[in-house]
Design a protein that fits this description.
- This protein is an all-alpha fold and about 170 residues long.
- The protein has a single domain, classed as Cytochrome c/b562 (Four Helix Bundle (Hemerythrin (Met), subunit A), Up-down Bundle).
- The protein contains six helices and no strands.
- Bound molecules: heme C.
- Heme C binds next to α2, α5 and α6.
């Protein structure tokens, strides 16, 4: 019996110590915005992924400025976009959107319409796979047309799922 109540006392002391250790200045830490130190790493990862997608697509468009585009480079960049497009759906776990106060342009619609979001990512994967094939055929006009289709896939997703900076 004595043993039991000693344990209870210890347990009670531990429980009592927890709020004391966490309270800091006594104000609850429930601010609307999350401090940078608490940003889930996946947000940075997906933004890096999109930056790389943007850079790869820019190289493709850069090649199209040339009279003699490097089709092998275009095919390689298309492959890179394709791999990165397949990663997109994995990079949006729940509660990592703009509504949670994070520094992100990810709109709540991503989680409200998950099937549409996945389809928009799959569209980019499809169009980039097509670009890789078409680049292998060596026609600048055909590559240019397919690059337009990719641009449409970016825009199609951004219009629905990414915060438009202009409207902030
Ligand atoms: C399936 C949806 C989807 C597709 C397809 C898509 N994007 Fe995005 N993109 C987003 C979302 C959502 C964000 C915001 C991510 C964040 O801030 O967490 C974003 C952000 C970006 C950013 C900003 C990254 C940063 O934080 O600096 C760039 C650049 C970008 N996208 C380029 C592109 C390009 C180029 C394409 C097409 C080749 C493309 N995206 C296709 C959804 C998409």
């Amino acid at each position: 019996m004595l043993r039991m109540s000693a344990l209870r006392l210890i347990a009670a002391a531990v429980v009592a110590a927890v709020p004391a250790a966490c309270s800091g200045d006594g104000t609850a830490d429930n601010a609307a915005t999350n401090p940078a130190s608490e940003v889930p790493p996946v947000i940075k990862e997906r933004q890096e992924n999109f930056k790389a997608i943007g850079a790869a697509f820019k190289s493709v468009r850069g090649e199209l400025e040339s009279d003699a585009p490097d089709f092998a480079l275009i095919a390689a960049k298309a492959g890179d976009i394709n791999a990165r497009a397949q990663q997109i759906p994995n990079d949006f776990p729940a509660l990592t959107g703009i509504d949670e106060g994070y520094d992100t342009e990810a709109l709540a619609a991503i989680w409200e319409k998950p099937e549409e979001f996945k389809a928009a990512a799959a569209k980019l994967a499809d169009e980039s796979a097509k670009l890789a094939t078409i680049a292998g055929e060596g026609s600048k006009d055909a590559v240019a047309a397919q690059a337009m289709a990719i641009g449409g896939a970016c825009k199609g997703c951004h219009d629905q799922f990414r915060l438009d900076d202009e409207k902030k």
